[in-house]
Amino acid sequence: xxxNNQITRRALLRGAGSGLGSIAxxxxxxxxxxxGVRHDPNVARKPHHPPKAKSVIFLFMEGAPSHIDxxxxxxxxxxxxxxxxxxxxxxxITAMGTAGNTLMGSPREWKQHGKxxxxxxxxxxxxxxxxxxxxxxxxxxxxxxxxxxxxxQMNTGDILSGRPSLGAWVTYGLGTGNKNLPTFISMIDxxxxxxxxxxxGAGFLPAVYQGTLFRQGPSPxxxxxxxxxxxxxxxxxRLSYLAAQNRDYATLHEDDSNLEARLRSFELAxxxxxxxxxxxxxxxxxxxxxxxxxxNQPETAVFGRNCLLGRRLVExxxxxxxxxxxxxxxxxxxxxxxxxxxxWCKASxxxxxxxxxxxxxxxMLQDTLVIWGGEFGRTPFNEKGDGRDHNPWxxxxxxxxxxVRGGQTIGTTDEIGLRAVERPTHVHDIHSSIxxxxxxxxxxxxxxxxxxxxxxxxxxxxxxVKELWEG
Amino acid sequence: xxxxxxxxxxxxxxxxxxxxxxxxKPQQRRWWAIQPVKAIAPPALDEAGRKWARNEIDRxxxxxxxxxxxxxxxxxxxxxxLRRVTLDLTGIPPTPAETQEYLNDxxxxxxxxxxxxxxxxxxxxxxxGRHWLDxxxxxxxxxFKQDDTRPNMWRYRDWVIQSWxxxxxxxxxxxxxxxxxxIYPGDAKALPGLGYLRLFEDxxxxxxxxxRRLELLNDVTDNTAFAFMGVTLACARCHxxxxxxxxxxxxxxxxxxxxxxxxxxxxTTASPAEVASYxxxxxxxxxxxxxxxxxxxxxxxEPRAKYKKEYIERFPEEVQVVFHKAPAERTPxxxxxxxxxxxxxxxxxxxxxxxxxxxxxxxxxxxxxxxLDGYQNLLPADLPRFQIMRDQAIASPPTHVLxxxxxxxxxxxxxPGNLSILDPEPAAVKPLPALNSSGRRAALANILxxxxxxxxxxxxxxxxxxxxxxxxxxxxxxxxxxxxxxxxHPALLDWLTAQFTGPDGWxxxxxxRRILLSATYRQSSDFREDAAEADTDNKLLWRYxxxxxxxxxxxxxxxxxxGLLDPTMGGPGVFPAVPAGTxxxxxRHWRKSRGPEDEYRSxxxxxxxxxxxxxxLQSFDTPLAFESCGRRQETVTPDQALELMNGQAAAGxxxxxxxxxxxxxxxxxxxxxxxxxxxxxxxxxxxxxAGRASEFLSRQTALAGGAQGALEDLSLALLxxxxxxxxx
Lengths: 471, 728
Fold this sequence. Notes:
- The structure holds 2 protein chains of 2 kinds.
- Chain A is an alpha/beta fold.
- Chain A has one domain: Alkaline Phosphatase, subunit A.
- Chain A has 12 helices and 17 strands.
- In chain A, strands 1, 4, 5, 6, 7, 8, 11, 12 and 15 form a 9-stranded mixed beta sheet that branches. In chain A, strands 2-3 form a two-stranded antiparallel sheet. In chain A, strands 9-10 form a two-stranded antiparallel sheet.
- In chain A, α2 packs across α8 and α10 runs parallel beside α11.
- Chain A starts with a helix and ends in a 17-residue tail after the last strand.
- The N terminus of chain A is likely disordered.
- In chain B, the strands form 3 sheets. A two-stranded antiparallel ribbon of chain B has the order 1-2. Chain B has a two-stranded antiparallel sheet with strand order 3-4.
- By secondary structure, chain B is mainly α.
- Chain B is globular.
- In chain B, α8 crosses α9, α10 runs antiparallel to α19 and α20 crosses α21.
- Chain B contains 33 helices and 6 strands.
- In chain B, β3 and β4 form a beta hairpin.
- Chains A and B meet through α1, α5, β6, α7 and α8 of A and α11, α27, α28, α31 and α32 of B.
């Protein structure tokens, strides 16, 4: 077997006569579990089953939005306002030790929206208009008591560090869907998210599968801007000298496919210098589009721009886009929840609605899975009188597009919104469901690490939210 | 002691105190890695073999090649050999002068002299210490949300580098990391080794203290198993290992060696006399500044108390109870909780001021601090501090096997012990009352540093081999189990291990010499179709395996050939400038570069923040510091190309290299090209290369705005070239 690989690789190299041959070849060997093989995400790979979604845009509301103020109305909680939590709900250990505090009702105005009658509060009026495209999952559960663990788990499946992010698994499973852009891109609107780079990191997977943090400004990819005094012509001359030198060395050692791959990596890098700036150049967008995303209003301009870029990246074949809203724990309303949530709902409402609408009218929504959610929800008992503590025992997320049946609500929490009751859905189950929609079976997506065939969902993920796409 | 107590509290009805001994099947006992290391005589050679072989290693390698009818490769040229050994031992290429000196040395023993010179270079410890830092997941920060700096962690890094440079016997190197305080009490040179136990990721403000404690112990247990024992014991955290004869209880037997540890960030290596003098001077300062200090105490008394109360109340009931207990009534487990929680409650005044005082209060505090200014000259400089772990007391809290690894899912209690298949009895632990220490870690250190330990001895020998050849005799360097890879040359591994722990006295440098002086290591890396057909992956080592340099060596080599490398050793981590817009923000994660003293130090000294790594190193596969890395990835990515094409670091190195080339060679394109090749590749260019380089320099002059620019472009291209970045 091993010998055949070598012969084929050499034959392919000769036959193909270019770096491309070697790249395709090494990826193939990787699938066969060939030891010491070079991993290459720059090829597309076959999914496990026909995918419903080609791309994902994960809208990460960092800091944890209050589900009981947005998607999960709790009349009983309002009745119990000001009283201690009845023991029957089960007292949890919380981050700030608030479980003994009195319950705090939600002053929201609630309405059912669309044919599906989805409950959405007045904080999200624009998103509410797309209610029939949304599937709201009200019974999410995480293990993270604190943000670093919670954000980490929503991205990597674990509250501890070291595991690959979901986008990295997708990159590993599917490879690229484009030529000159990264496969997995993250963007932030404020500070770095809790846990920083591990949220788009490759963990124990080879680093080639990690996400790229898109920077603000015209050169979103690191090191794609020419240095001072450099010009395109000068760089091309330099690269062509380098290529000649490297080609000699690669020819001398034609058995070593890494050397061929190095040649090709410079070509790709050169192309990325142009494709990055092109992708973020909004001058090609119409005024109507800019207005739709809220680019002309200061409250919505930053996240609106990121949402618009999200659409442009997906258009260009990027598979996994993660857009942080309130990065650095913006939504973390331990006190003054009213002010906090009004600000962040305002910042996200119009842009998210615009993204769904824009994708829809371009015919892209059917292939693009849009996910909204934070690392957990917030408690029904108060913190500091007007805030809420972290609640990983039950919270809401929503899904749209990408094969998701809209206009439905899945799962419930208890009467006060503390714990998921009906159809509890752990982060692992959310991950396996997202992967499934992308054509990947979380049980087959494995990587041998320290003697274990590791998968994205650790030991879980076996209760996929099939309601999302079935029925 | 704790046994009796736990019988009482856990209750005999719930679980038996100790489970029945596990009976291993004969097949499990045949696992190759646990067989005693055999002193195997090197195989005899035939005529051709005798001609080729240089030492015993070659006899083992030759035997396997011969069985497959593969001839070994011819030796590499002396120039290639020198470059290979130099990069391998020091991470930077030989200088033209070193190359000349070696090529001119035709007396017998030239290779030995060259190797000894490199082994004596301080760069050796930096390069090989770095390998060990990968294995122990070294970082200068906590991880999790805050990713707080560990300000004195670097002293462990420096201790590692010094240990490798000193050729500290490896058994001693093990003992100092696991139990320096227990085995070498009072030895200032050994104590920093305990930093090993402090390298877990930590979340300072986690309210669920017992869960955090368990996660931390899991982290230390996993790493010890990977790093020293070469087993994936982490699989046994939840159940018996699915493939290897490692028991569920073995995980907790190993963990219980550590169950008594607490963080000690105030440890010092100062002598008792120095400590006494420091304390006397501190007392003088306090006496002199008493009026102001009293004012501060009075001013902060209330906020301090308020902060403390508030933070204690944030904790779950079980933690609050511990705070309210009298010290004499706290159990060992209570103390574990207390030590881990108290740092959240008793915090520096600055934190209290920041969180609890309004603007007027802050201003008042600032004023009071200003009043202290007059006394600053009396304040003694702090003693050198180390971040380590040590035991909290003699008595340890009980350790239970945990069902599915879950907190509180207690099964039977275990005592500290080795892997059951090696020794099912509890370890011989001698409590150390004089040191107020349990003696558990000393017992573990002695197990790991035992010449008869079949795992730890083979594991380190195999790691050394791995770093020389890019692949171990056991390729899965931290997994000697059934899911890992089998040794390609088990007899050689045993022979090397027997030499290492026997006549060589655990000297790693002696092991290096054996390997480097072998004909196996000296072979050319050239491809041979005939050999490849019989052994595709070069598992039998019919040639030297070419490979890319590691990230650190890439950067260090660029620094070295451009004449920038600052040979200063040790000290706190440095912060070379980072490009704007990366994950790293200056001021938050990174200090602003102070210039050369931050820019040009060896890469091993670059500050290692757990959540964000220095971009150039990260793009060339520097591992994350969340878990042990015994084998780095070698990826090829456009990010790497961009780093070399447009990165400010690479541009700076090219600029310096161009200046160096221009300064010490003639100004003709041919002379410049020759000098640039000699500096970077350690050889003169071929005629074709010289022509191409000269032509490039001439044509590039117009595009690059002058001859200097053209030379910088040539320099950058050579620094980016495959030949420069590979060990051949």
